[in-house]
Structure formats: C-alpha cells, structure tokens
Amino acid sequence: MNALVVCPACGHEWVPAEGAADSGAPAERVVRDAVGNVLHDGDSVVVVKALKVKGSPSGIKAGTKVRNIRLVDGVDGHDIDCKVDGFGAMQLKSSVVKKG
C-alpha cells in the first residue's frame, strides 16, 4: 500500500513509514562557541579576542563578559544577539566567544 500523507500547510508529501525515520521537522540548529561548547539562549559568554566596533574608539576588550545571550539566524555568521555593557545591543559571532 503506497498511501501518501500530505501536510495541509505546505503541501509536502511523504510515505508514513519514512516519517518514522525522518519526522520532516527541520533539524535544530546547533551553535558552538570558539572551543566547541554548545550555546543556548540565556547563556553567559566571554569575548575571547578584542573586537573593533565602528564609531567607538576603544572597541570590546578580550575577557568582556556578556550575559543573557539570544541565538538568532544572523547575517554573515553573526548568530548571537546580546547587550554588551558600555556598548548596548549588538550581534556577535559565536567564533569570538566562549561559554563562561
């Protein structure tokens, strides 16, 4: 019996037996820091290298702690949305932070 199941929202069709192995749901994105730790919303991280910030004479120093991050699908690999003390809201790349 080759009965197909159809999603009413997007029209995707699949065989129910295949659905057991692959639920059809998008895979959850895993974001890792500079040393390979998995990051989650609400984590605290530490900046591992000095970052230049446009319009700021000093930039963000290595060792700056950032609390309560939010993971986003950003542009150009900027996948962390956060507020940095003294700089305000900004997006960072996960490759320049480590879980702390």
What does this 3D model show about the protein?
The protein has 100 residues and is mainly β. Helices cover 6% and strands 31% of the residues. It contains 1 helix and 10 strands, in the order ββαββββββββ. The strands form 4 sheets. A 3-stranded antiparallel β-sheet has the order 6-5-10, with no helix packed on it. Strands 7-8-9 form a 3-stranded antiparallel β-sheet, with no helix packed on it. The protein has a two-stranded antiparallel sheet with strand order 1-2. A hairpin with a 6-residue loop joins strand 7 and strand 8. The longest helix is centred in the N-terminal third of the chain and has 6 residues. The radius of gyration is 20 Å and the shape is elongated.
